[in-house]
Design a protein that fits this description.
The protein is α/β, with parallel strands linked by helices. The protein has helices at residues 26-37, 43-57, 142-153, 174-189, 207-220, 282-289, 299-305, 334-340, 361-367, 375-378; strands at 69-70, 88-93, 100-105, 117-121, 156-160, 200-205, 224-225, 229-230, 257-263, 319-320, 322-325, 344-347. Helix 4 crosses helix 5 (207-220).
């Protein structure tokens, strides 16, 4: 697996006058100099070389192959039909109008439960306007469809809400805390429903895919303090301690996540930092981070802590498969290929938000019915 661990400018951003914005950092300067010297050079090769060089300057290692479990891609497959099942709705945080919920889909009658479980998060640019765990602007909703397909495979699956950044108190890291709380709820409670707490899969679409990558890497990579459980402070100061998540006991180990399957997820939340036009939706990021301008000194610390690309590689035994479309101009495909090229399947001609029901390599590798080539069946 290849991961662009772009934790550059960390030393500088501790100062409010760092100037370490999207166009004033080690990687951008490196890329600009390289392009001057070689205007016809390969943009992707330049970006990768600069990311490694700047990360090494910070004392970090180069991108290296990890020992995560590879899923062999297949060009076509038999995808499961979405199961017609009524989900169980669960409040995992809050109550009344402030309740945050998940819908849990169990395998239907006649389908053998596999004992594994999955949890996914919906799209919405972190602001989630008009989109929830079970409603979307263009039904059928991808998270609902993916869970219904998972149920057909025998995997219990939850579609979870998160607090949108447009809500009071909904700015980063509120949504990430919700995603972590929901995942912890699953681990704490699936055992009583006949499932294995240690066989979890995280997935999501667009912004929800960012949460899946964050949760997957935080937990599967063993982002823990030995002997004392989950590490609740991210490298640039974001605190994930969550006293309002009463149903989620502290996690003493990181073995519950065995699969990570995001669709078209933004892995790096500082716009235009890569030479080939890798830009996220700027206005959504301003809202997500609760700032009015990218010159705000809190921007880069938050952006780095919200970027899966700055987290350690997952350990051995974790299956990873990323899906993206080559024509995606909302979240550029380089968000996946720069993050983890060897585990990314890019579908030619597809844009943002393609459905998981399309028979293609990306979908087959995550939700197909061939056990050796399906993330959901490999766990």
């Amino acid at each position: 697996m290849k991961s662009a661990r772009l934790m550059f400018c960390v030393a500088a951003i501790v100062s409010a006058l760092s100037g370490c914005g999207p166009s004033h950092n080690c990687v951008d300067d490196c890329e600009a100099n390289a392009q001057k010297k070689n205007p016809t050079g390969d943009a992707q090769a330049i970006a990768d070389a600069c990311e490694n060089e700047c990360f090494k300057k910070m004392g970090g290692p180069e991108d290296t192959a990890s020992s995560s479990q590879a899923i062999a891609p297949v060009t076509s497959c038999t995808l499961p039909s979405p199961a017609t099942v009524t989900p169980t709705t669960i409040i995992f945080r809050g109550s009344g109008s402030s309740a945050v919920k998940l819908d849990l889909y169990f395998p239907p009658s006649g389908v053998t439960p596999l004992g594994s479980w999955a949890i996914g998060w919906h799209e919405g640019g972190f602001t989630s306007t008009g989109t929830t765990r079970n409603t979307c602007s263009s039904p059928p909703c991808n998270t609902v469809t993916a869970c219904q397909m998972a149920a057909s495979l025998g995997v219990a699956c939850a579609s979870a809400d998160y607090t949108p950044a447009t809500s009071s108190g909904g700015q980063f890291p509120a949504g990430l805390k919700d995603a972590l709380c929901a995942t912890r709820w699953m681990r704490a409670h699936v055992g009583s429903r006949g499932l294995d707490p240690q066989r979890g899969i995280v997935f999501g679409f667009s912004a929800g895919g960012n949460f899946a990558e964050m949760i997957g890497y935080l937990l599967a990579a063993g982002y823990t303090v030995p002997g004392s459980g989950f590490r609740n402070v991210l490298p640039n100061g974001t605190v994930l301690t969550d006293v309002s998540c009463p149903t989620a006991p502290a996690i003493a180990d990181a073995t519950m996540i065995k699969g990570i399957g995001p669709w078209y997820a933004p892995a790096t939340l500082y716009p235009c930092s890569v030479v080939n036009g890798n830009c996220a939706t700027v206005t959504n990021l301003l809202t997500y981070f609760g700032i009015s301008t990218f010159s705000d000194p809190s921007y880069m610390p938050k952006a780095l802590d919200a970027s899966p690309s700055s987290l350690p590689h997952p350990a051995a035994g974790v299956a990873i498969s990323l899906a993206h479309g080559s024509s995606d101009i909302v979240v550029w495909p380089s968000e996946s290929t720069n993050f983890d090229a060897s585990d990314t399947n890019v579908e030619t001609g597809l844009g943002h938000m393609f459905a998981p029901t399309l028979n293609n390599t990306a979908n087959c590798t995550i939700l197909g019915q061939a056990p050796a080539a399906s993330l959901f069946l490999s766990i």
